[in-house]
Amino acid sequence: MASFPRETSGEQSQPWIQTLSDLHLEFGQQYSLYSFPATAPYLLLGGDVGRLIDYDGYLGFMEKQASRFERVFLVLGNHEFYGLDYEAGVDMARRLVSEVSLAGRVVLLHRTRWDDPKSEITILGCTLWSAIPQRAYDVVQSKVKDFKNINEWSVEKHNTLHAAEHLWLREQVAQASTRQILVATHHAPRVEGTSRPQHVGNPWTCAFATDLMDQTWDGVRTWVFGHTHYSTEVVLGSGIRLLANQRGYVMPENQASRGKSGDGYVFDDGLVISTSWEVGRSK
Predict the structure, then answer these.
(1) Which of 63, 69, 70, 89 minimizes the C-alpha distance to 78?
(2) Is 172 inside any structural domain?
(3) Could you tell me which residues are beta bridge partners of residue 71?
(4) pTM (2 decimals)?
(5) Which residues form the Calcineurin-like phosphoesterase domain (predicted)?
(6) Does 107 map to a domain?
(7) Within a domain: residue 7?
(8) What does the pLDDT look like over 87-139, one tens digit per residue?
């Protein structure tokens, strides 16, 4: 396992957590092929690593990460559930993180709070399925593949889970508001600035993002999200940093990132958040 310095009183900021999402290793079964440098003690995988139904390959990838990082945090994306129903996917994810070969180092962020024992930082994580208004039901069901690829999936179930996870986040942030909070979700918590500008007005954008930033989120320093295949960094007037570092669909014969970006940002497999909440980039 790689060794990284940790911040102590009086010392300068150090790398704390590396974050990547939307690796989509299910395309061409890249679970054993894809690699990236370890640049921090902790790793956050923000969903759509692959499909849980590809269990052995997915587990092999997680075993490699568990051997390199002190702790690995896993958010479930929509693609994790492809080929399964929702409940079976959650059960499979819980089975995965309990595998002996992962040595207890993988934390499933499925409505999960994790307090860093070495700091005042709290991680709150869930998928945060988006809120789909009734006027968009038909177009979302026709345009978004979740409704074909997740067994027994429906807009009603999608919205029910959004409501439950939104409420959970509100309650958890209120309870941890005196701490420094990192929120990790797969779906985006804001429409503007979280996907390519040409997509913002699409009637199915609501399947990817929900406007939640008009609410008060005391204690939240950074909110990491994925799902939109748009890497970006936005600091809001509230001081909350929205951060996305998304690889997107890359086939095995083209291991370079697609480079889709926002405001000059590209996918950076070495991106880290430091103990002082600064973002460090390798590209």
Answers:
(1) 89
(2) yes
(3) 42
(4) 0.94
(5) 20-230
(6) yes
(7) no
(8) 999 999 999 999 999 999 999 999 999 999 989 999 999 999 999 999 999 99
Distances from the Cα of 137 to the Cα of 111, 128, 142, 144, angstroms: 26, 18, 9, 11
Asked whether residue 82 is domain-assigned, the answer is: yes
| Domain of 264, in residue numbers | 15-280
Q: What are phi and psi of 80, to 5 degrees?
A: -55, -30
Q: Using an 8 Å Cβ cutoff, are 132 and 153 in contact?
A: no
Question: Phi first, then psi: what are they for 58, rounded to 5°?
Answer: -60, -45
For helices 55-66 and 86-97, the axis angle rounded to 10 degrees is 40
Determine the Cα–Cα distance for residues 231 and 220; give it in Å rounded to an integer. Answer: 20
For 228-251, b where at least 16 C-beta lie within 10 A, e where not — what string? bbbbbbbeeeeebbbbbbbbbebe
Query: Considering its fold, how many domains does the chain have in total?
Result: 1
Query: What CATH code is carried by the domain that includes residue 212?
Result: 3.60.21
